[in-house]
Amino acid sequence: MEKKNKKRIILIGHICFIALCVTGVALLFIRTRQCGEERNGIYWIQTPEEAFLYPSICAQITRIDTNTIDVLELNTGEYRNLYRVNIKDTKFLWRHELIQKEDLKEGDIVFIQYGGSVKESYPAKIKAELVYYLGDKENFFKTGETGGEE
Fold first, then answer.
1. Which end of the chain, N or C, is less surrounded by CB atoms within 10 Å?
2. Higher pLDDT, 44 or 78
3. CA-to-CA dists, residue 6 to 1, 12, 14, 18, 38, angstroms
4. Is 113 in contact with 126 (CB distance < 8 Å)?
5. Residue 34 above 90 pLDDT?
6. What is the mean predicted confidence (pLDDT) over 100-106?
7. Residue 114: CA atoms inside 13 Å, Cβ hemisphere, count?
8. Distance of alpha carbon 84 from alpha carbon 132, whole angstroms
9. Is 56 exposed, middle or buried (0-12, 13-18, 19+ CB in 10 A)?
């Protein structure tokens, strides 16, 4: 009789262990899926600190249309890329506050975060997710009081 009780206890223990493993795997799968949805843009554009997960460029606006802007990428290399940016359904920020597209003008410096791929054409085409206004050309490139004229 003791052998039967011992076998039942071992069988119940195995069943409980298997149930715990299945529950753990299910919870891990659910949490991993939630993290994947957050990374795909559902939550990441909510705060500026988290928004930098998108590919991005710093550029100067060269032309503004209704649904697109043309920008010249600012970089330290000799070659500067020209982009045509689709801005339909795009948020525009300045100092963490929403602004209107109409507040931008040619010559302004912007930081563009884009989603999707870059269309290999000239100019290259991207879809903006978020546009940060950094300032106009004159104020953006000033050296400040310490670097003033002598």
1. C
2. 78
3. 9, 10, 12, 18, 48
4. no
5. no
6. 89
7. 22
8. 16
9. middle
